[in-house]
Amino acid sequence: MKNSTKNQLRIIGGVHKRRQIAFANIEGLRPTPDRLRETLFNWLMWDIEGSKVLDLCAGSGALSFEALSRGAKSVHLIEPNLEQLKFLKKNLVLLNIENAKVYASTAQQALAKINESFDLLFLDPPYALNLWEELSQLVDEKLNENALIYVEADRPLDSLNLPKTWQKIKNSKVGIIYAGLYQKVGK
After folding, report:
1. What whole-number distance in Å separates Cα of residue 54 and Cα of residue 152?
2. 6, 30, 36, 133: most buried by Cβ count inside 10 Å?
3. Is the pTM higher than 0.90?
4. Is residue 166 within a helix (H) or strand (E), and if so which, with residue range?
5. DSSP state letter for 118
C-alpha cells in the first residue's frame, strides 16, 4: 500500500499568505524552511512580480507557491515523484492557480522539452543526487540575461561548479543549508 501520509506547510506572504499546502511524506523531500524562504523572498522582493519562474526540482512546491502568491507571472514545476505530483496539482486547484505548468518527469527530461526562457530559477535538487553542476549546465541556456537563480545545497556553494556566468549576489546559511542568490551576467 502506498504511503499517502501528508505533511503541511504554510505560505508566508502574498495573496495566499497563511494558506496551508499539503505535500507527500516521502523520504528525502525537505521543503525549504520558513526562515530561509522568508530570507529568499526578502531578497526577491522587487524582482518576483511579473517574473517567469522555473522550479527544477519542485518537491513540496514551497518555493513555487510562494512565488505565485507574490505575483510571479507563471511558474513551471518539475517533479518526477508521482505521489508528490498529485499534491502539487491538488494545491494548484485549492489555491485556484492557473498560471502554473507541472511536468511529471526528471529535470533533465523536462528541460529537453521546454522551449521557453525564464527570469527566475529555483535550483534545489535532492542533496543525495548531487545534481547542481549537471542541472545548472543544462538550464543555463533557458535563463534570460540578468535572470536570478536561487541555489540551495548541503555543502558550500563555491564547491558546486556552477556556470561562470552566474554571479553570486547574496548568500546565507541556516543550519546545514547553504543558500545563495545568483544573477546571470553575460553569455
Report:
1. 14
2. 36
3. yes
4. strand 166-174
5. E
